[in-house]
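Bench log, entry 3. Co-assembly request; chain sequences pasted below exactly as received.
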Amino acid sequence: MRISILFVLLALLGSCTAQTPEKKTTAPAGNPYYSRTDTTVLQVSNATWKKILPDSVYVVARESDTERPFTGKYWNFEGLGTYYCAVCGNALFRSDGKFASSCGWPSFFETMRPTSVTYKQDHSYGMERIEVNCGRCGSHLGHLFDDGPPPTGKRYCMNSVVLDFVPDATGN
Ligand code: FE
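Structure output for the full assembly:
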C-alpha cells in the first residue's frame, strides 16, 4: 500500500516538473510544420496554411496584410528573449536587436542570422519598398527601411501577429 502511494506521488511530481520550460517550445496545436530547431526550408501551399493558421496570422503572413499601427502585442514591448516566426517557428530576432521606434510596429535593426529572412522588391501601393519574408516558410513579416539606428541603420518594421516571443530562461 505504501509503495503504491509512493508511486503516485512520484508520478505527480514528474508531471509537474516536466511542464514549464518544455511547454514554451511546443508547436501550436494543429501546426505540424512549426519547429524552433528545424531550419529546413518549407514548401507549403497557402491552401494548407489556411487550414492551419488563425485568420489574423494568415492574412498578414500569406496575403501580406499589415496590422494597424499601435495595436500589435510587441510594438511597445521590451522583454528579453527571442522572436520566432509565428507560422513556422524560425528564429528571427533577438530582443537586443530591437529598438523603440515611434512607428507603431515592432522594429529591429538586425536579424538573428543572415538566413533568418529573405528580401523581395515590393512595388505595391505605388511605393518602392523591400519586403521581408521568413527565411524558412516564406511568410510575409513586414518591410525593411534605411532609417534605423546604428550600427546597421536598418529598420525591420514587423507585424506583431507573425512574431512569437519566447522569454530568456531566468536561470531558476
Ligand atoms: Fe516562418
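The radius of gyration is 19 Å. DSSP finds four helices and nine strands in the chain.
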